[in-house]
């Protein structure tokens, strides 16, 4: 698929088919694509916690994704918790921030990785939903995520059971300035 078509056709999906299970091999393909993203000084601080077991998916949905009906929206999808190791991207080896953004660089780098992940999913015919509304403390406890990592998002991955329409996008004139 042509890249422009891929990015224009990718949608956030909120209803997944019960007839498809995501495999470890598919998840590995997604994470491999994520790891191709650039990162601050090649620090590669993104980390991924993939929940495939039905029991764990149900528990995570019920206890950690109850905001904005994310628990219902992600039924029948695999769940990937994305984190970054804080105080590394955007920092010197002695812990001094390189600029005023500090840990914002870890989040920025993870965003680049997550974009690669969701575009690879679309290329493979899978659908995704990125969720920021979640209970990070419960997720950390449930998946034994170290305190040295910042939990950013949960990404649902599955086969769409709906066809969302394309949302209106801003015009270039609204966001682009030339000097």
Helices, strands, pairings?
Layout: H1 3-9, H2 24-34, E1 46-51, H3 54-64, H4 70-73, E2 78-85, H5 104-123, E3 127-131, H6 136-143, E4 149-158, H7 172-175
Antiparallel strand pairs: 1-2, 2-4, 3-4
Helix pairs in contact: 2-5
Family: Belongs to the nitroreductase family.
Organism: Blautia acetigignens
Protein name: Nitroreductase family protein
Structure description:
The structure is a single chain. With 179 residues, the chain is an alpha+beta fold. Helix content is 36%, strand content 16%. It contains 7 helices and 4 strands. It has helices spanning 3-9, 24-34, 54-64, 70-73, 104-123, 136-143, 172-175; strands spanning 46-51, 78-85, 127-131, 149-158. The chain has a 4-stranded antiparallel sheet with strand order 1-2-4-3, sandwiched between helices. Helix 2 (24-34) crosses helix 5. The longest helix is centred in the middle third of the chain and has 20 residues, at 104-123. The protein is globular. The relative contact order is 0.24. The mean pLDDT is 96.
Query: Radius of gyration in whole Å, from Cα?
Result: 17 Å
Helix content: 25-40%
The total strand number stands at 4
Main pleated-sheet profile: 4 strands, antiparallel
Organism: Blautia acetigignens
Protein name: Nitroreductase family protein
Keywords: Oxidoreductase
Pfam families: Nitroreductase
What key phrases describe this protein's structure?
single chain, 179 residues, alpha+beta, four-stranded antiparallel β-sheet, 4 strands, 36% helix, globular
Question: Could you provide a short overview of the structure?
Answer:
By secondary structure, the chain is of the alpha+beta class. Helices cover about 35% and strands about 15% of the residues.
């Amino acid at each position: 698929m042509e890249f422009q078509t891929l990015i224009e056709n990718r949608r956030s999906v909120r209803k997944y088919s019960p007839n498809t299970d995501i495999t470890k091999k598919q998840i590995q393909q997604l994470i491999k694509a994520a790891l191709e993203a650039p990162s601050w000084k090649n620090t590669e601080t993104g980390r991924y916690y993939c929940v495939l077991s039905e029991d764990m998916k149900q528990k995570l949905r019920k206890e950690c994704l109850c905001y904005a009906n994310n628990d219902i929206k992600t039924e029948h999808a695999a769940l990937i918790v994305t984190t970054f190791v804080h105080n590394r991207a955007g920092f010197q080896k002695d812990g001094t921030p390189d600029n005023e953004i500090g840990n914002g660089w870890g989040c920025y780098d993870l965003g680049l990785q997550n974009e690669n992940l969701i575009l690879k999913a679309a290329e493979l015919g899978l659908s995704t939903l990125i969720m920021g509304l979640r209970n990070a403390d419960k997720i950390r406890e449930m998946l034994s995520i170290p305190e040295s990592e910042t939990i950013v998002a949960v990404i649902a991955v599955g086969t769409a059971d709906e066809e969302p329409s394309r949302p209106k996008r801003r015009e270039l004139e609204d966001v682009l300035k030339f000097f």
